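#dry-run=false #mode=assembly
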Amino acid sequence: MANLNINGRNMSVEAANDTPLLWVIREQLQMTGTKFGCGAGLCGACTVHLNGEAVRSCQTSIADAAGKKITTIEGLSAKGDHPLQKAWIAEQVPQCGYCQSGQIMQAASLLSKNSNPTKEEVVAHMDGNLCRCMTYSRIQKAILRAASEMRTASATGTERRAT
Amino acid sequence: MNEHVKNIIPETTDLSRRSFLVGTAATGLVLGYAAVPGIDQALAAPASFEPSVWYSIAPDGLVTVTCGKADMGQHIASTMAQIVAEELGASWKDMRVQLASNDPKFNDPVLGAQITGGSWSTMMNFDAMSRAGAAGRMALTEAAASAMGVPAGELVVRDSVISHPKSKKSMSFADVVKGGKATKSFTPDELKAIKLKSPDQYTLIGVSVPQLDIPSKTNGTAKYGIDVMLPGMAYGALVTPPVRYGATVKSVDDSAAKKLPGFIKAVTLDDKTGSTTGWVVAVANTYAQAKKAAEALKVSYDGGPNAKVSSESLLAEAKRLQGLDDSGQFFVKDGDPNAAFGSAAKVLEAEYTTSINIHAPMEPMNATAEFKGDILHIYSGNQFATRSGAIAAGAAGIDPKYVVMHQMWLGGGFGRRLDADMMVPAVQAAKAIGKPVKVIYTRENDMTMDYSRPLTYQKVKAGVDADGKLVALSHDVVSAWPTARWGIPDFLSPSVDKKGPLDAFTVNGADFFYTVPNHHVRAIKNEMAHSATPSGQLRSVAPGWTFWAIESAIDEIAHATGKDPAQFRVELLDGKGKNDGGAQRLRNTLLAAMGLAGYGTKKLPKGEGMGVACVSSQERATASWTACVAHVAVASSGEVTVKKLTVATDVGTQVHPDNIRAQVEGAALWGMSLALFEKATLKDGGIEQTNFDSYTPLRMSQMPEVAVNVIANGEKATGVGEPAVTVVAPAIGNAVFNAVGARIRGLPITAEAVKAAMKA
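#status=ok
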């Protein structure tokens, strides 16, 4: 039994403490946007946020996740309209799409700390996320587009506050 | 195949390779209302208009296209909708897609079965979808004409609205469907007679409309096979043997598993379909519990006949078979190369190899099975519903007509999901416990039990005359035969020497468009590989290895005769005889790629080089003309860095330019990944690589600049998912030679091999 805070809601789940968070999210909570890819932290398909940090949910036990703020792709934005999600559509990134929840969550943890990443910083941050369809160039473009839009939105917000 | 797998013969039997008739619509359209269960219901809710099996128009005007092809990221569902919408005159915002069940009415109109592969889908469905769309437009227009009291010929259809410019009257598709008067029906002959739009009339084909599946793939809502949840279902985790194929289970000790929470049962598969050998499924309430139980099971095996086979023994056997005069069957038999070698000024021989390769789509194999009354329901993303349903039936011991395949989005296919091994554990576990069961492979199961791209060995012998002209070429291709494994005669091709059918999907590409008067290609089945490493169709299939050999060999011949390799190819692509048409298109594509890459126009730094290759993948009759210039830098360690891939491809007609670019770029990067980073090995009968730490597809940091250039000259639309895979490895190999003089003949190209060849 563990108490988890997922996407802003407190939930109690019945599972052994060493159960990977991935399977609890997918099966017990039936949020299937987070994907199983390798079970070994090698592909990034299962990426979620723990207190805003990108982690591999296949390598995170529910005991480790208890008491922390867990965010999955379903909770990244209210209406699927996070700047990254919009940029993913604008750049038409996904092919099969299976890795893309993990890619978006991994990218979101970058942009929350660095709103103006260089291409090299994007590559360094994203290199642990495999895409077998090889959509890498579009992923890069979408991240840079989202970063730019976030900066513009934030600048506009500042101006509004100032006036 | 065996007696336990029935009914997998495609309905259309004229499937002889290289002779597809693209452009015959076999779909019978039934125009009019769908069967209305009762008049009360019909009055309560207006029915949808179903102009063909391929789509329906709801009273709210939404058009839902049913896609009979597996969508594994090539956005084929969206593409089918786009083709329908063009002729129907629907607005793109009204289009929706759904995935077809295995009902034969959704069979491919050309192939007569539900199978997705070969980069065939667009070319083989373009005509049928166009005619279905056009028929719907005509039916709606007639109904609208009668409702508006104007002549049908004066109506204009655009963006889901039928308007009469003279009277300024108009009706939306929704209005017409709600009116219930669209009842015109078309016979197959009438369908064939419909005059379709000419390309200059297109308003949607050629436009990069937003792909319909993409939003759901950015917010976690797209449902893949692994996401299926059924009430009361249990989960299965596999225990697979150390030997890829041929092992049997001697005993299963479940005493430790029985002590684990949630454990239900260990099921030893009795697989009469031959899809699996020696597998046990641990079934439990959750997948995490099933996986723990699987780890706790103690299974002992008889390793079977392949327990000592290795990559080395497969290669040795391939060489032995190639050395025999009577091995294999002829795929091409033009002239007499052996006689020509005797009089040639120069004869060259070379051996080319490719390693075992693993599909490893990001979604591991999985299937969910549920018995409901007499019906077996299968939920899985699959590329070959016709055969996979039969395999599921074989595993259940029932007739295939009682199997319903529920198609899901595929988390990558690449040919892996043409196979149906995942159906067997799901079906037998569900049967054993009397509940629905979802079986999920671990990545380790997925890699070690892959229906892999086979290890291949090719020998090329070439004869050049005194003028440096290529006059003779013999080419032996030794491999496992992936398509022969299906046991479907229609997918095999007759050999030209009448020695029985051969698997053309092991030699396609070797029948190239170069003019070589004496040309033999022999397809030789490596039975040892066929048995020990049952192989599958991996993205681009045979051209992925045949062009590695041919395009490397052509380069070697050019260098040996002192000619520029690109110019040498241009001369061979003279368009004479049977090569007329294709050769010229391929030549032009090569020239385009050379121009775009600046081939031969600049002096490159030491250690850098450009290499070219050009291909007619996938098959002679279905080719997309593709060329690549690879620009590489080779370090003194032998390490190869690809700086840029310039790809040009002639696809005839572009339905969706942006999607073509995405597919070609992905395919080119697959080609590079296979050329440099992906290698699997067999030891003691088992695949040694188990996860992404030892089997290492290309990652973002390894990506070069990729310049994709598409030529659309108005010819028929061809496929784009695979051809660019095949052109990259030889282009890189040829670039390495131009950079440092190292000729590499084995894939993948490793730093060690390059360094050794540099010294040699």
